[in-house]
Amino acid sequence: xxxxxxxxxxxxxxxxxxxxxxxxxxxxxxxxxxxxxxxxxxxxxxxxxxxxxxxxxxxxxxxxxxxxxxxxxxxxxxxxxxxxxxxxxxxxxxxxxxxxxxxxxxxxxxxxxxxxxxxxxxxxxxxxxxxxxxxxxxxxxxxxxxxxxxxxxxxxxxxxxxxxxxxxxxxxxxxxxxxxxxxxxxxxxxxxxxxxxxxxxxxxxxxxxxxxxxxxxxxxxxxxxxxxxxxxxxxxxxxxxxxxxxxxxxxxxxxxxxxxxxxxxxxxxxxxxxxxxxxxxxxxx
Length: 285
Prior knowledge:
The chain is an alpha+beta fold. The protein has helices spanning 12-26, 31-43, 52-66, 72-83, 86-93, 98-115, 178-182, 268-277; strands at 140-146, 149-159, 162-168, 186-193, 202-206, 219-221, 225-228, 281-284.
């Protein structure tokens, strides 16, 4: 669990669950089905009485309230967690100070009261605009969501049908300017195919990048060869894609220097043979 304050929304679980819920809601899913799906996902890893589940239920309760479809199951669980001081006990185990615990308790009481105050109208579903390959070019800076969590990204290079993308560690909020992404820590750097998922990409800016990244991060392109090692092939852009390399203690902006992206290939001899043969095909290793 990651928490950075005593507010109801100041935890990783709350933010991830709420955003995941609203994403599916905007896609047209039924509220009851969204709740059931999210709970099933968390119950695979946590017991229902685990402290981590508190924020899961809080986020579900808030989302259901926003949609005017509050379930007895979720509301009762929230009442139990708050009424029995279970969340306070959990935060005490996390070594929160007494002053912080008092603030947390006050926020919990206000939160429960708000849930019991009927909302006048349900939140409108907001269909997200579709995106396509033309939106991203070399230098594109954007953010996207994966499983309800926000990440930033920068396109270092575009070669044919692939993008060399720097992905940030998860961000606490939606970035409003390019510097919030350029100054962020790096999660991974990899080549992605040109096919981009719908409803995920939110462009912020496009900067000029002078360097040539061909032959770096496991990708080589010539007129007749496209050779890739460990290319990220996940069509949903989840963070289970293959990593090409990791960059510790570096910021996204550091990779604007071409030399900071390694050029070594695991199978260098095989690549040299391909260059000599010049086959007209795409080879994934």
